[in-house]
Amino acid sequence: MNQLTLNPREVVEYVVELGNEKTDKKAWLLAMQGIMAGAFIAFGGIAFLNIYANVSDPGLGLLLAAAIFPIGIMAILLMGLELVTSNTMIFVGVFKKSCKVKKALRMLIIVWAANLLGALAIAFLAKGANVISPHMTKAIHSIGSAKAGLTITEMILRGILCNMLVCGGVLMALSGKDNISKMAAIWLPIVVFILCQAEHIVANMFFLPMAYITGADISILDIIYNFFFVSVGNFIGGAIIISGYSYMTQLKN
Q: Which residues of the chain have pLDDT under 50?
């Protein structure tokens, strides 16, 4: 074993170990850690909006906003919080038969709901605190309408692309043993998924409700559709593609 990093097989074995720990957690603990994770993703969303809405050049604004957004997932990684998208990698353990499908799905459902509560709480707090400026409101309406206007196929495929990057980034981060290495490894894949216009369910749990409560022309049904199909795409990207690849290449033989 390298002193500074884990090799790919060691990382995947560690993911299996972490997954088994997560499925054994009490529901209340998963919920609390999931709520806080949703909140930190929402904080990243507010920072994203503030930069994106106030830079005149759209390309530069998107790049700078994308550069600050990963603060949420960095906090999740360092604080040991629970994020449903990266937690889909628990299916490496399912493929290995060290974790039952029922336990994996239980954990994912609890964390999904908790992430939603955390993101919604920050959206309403931000609205009540009047930190969403008119420029930010205009930006979130544009973002919300664009997300609500995606086709089912686009939502699923963009969800797949997103969670391949998120889970790949988490695997990269877990290979490092110090916090600086972990943060450096996770940062760029998150920036890239934003620049690729991929769809992340927990980010959408903030952006779409924020758009709705500030008066965007989208409906509750639009939000539900997006949540469902993006979740499906994220699940495929993390639980099937990244987890399946990791199992086949690192653990099967």
A: 1-2
Residue 173 phi, psi (nearest 5): -65, -40
Q: What is the mean pLDDT of the chain?
A: 95
Taking CA 101 as the corner, what is the angle to CA 161 and CA 224, rounded to the nearest 5 degrees? 50
Pair 193, 31: CB distance under 8 Å: no
- The pLDDT tens digits of the residues spanning 113-150 come to 999 999 999 999 999 999 999 999 999 999 999 999 99
CB 160 within 8 A of CB 88: no
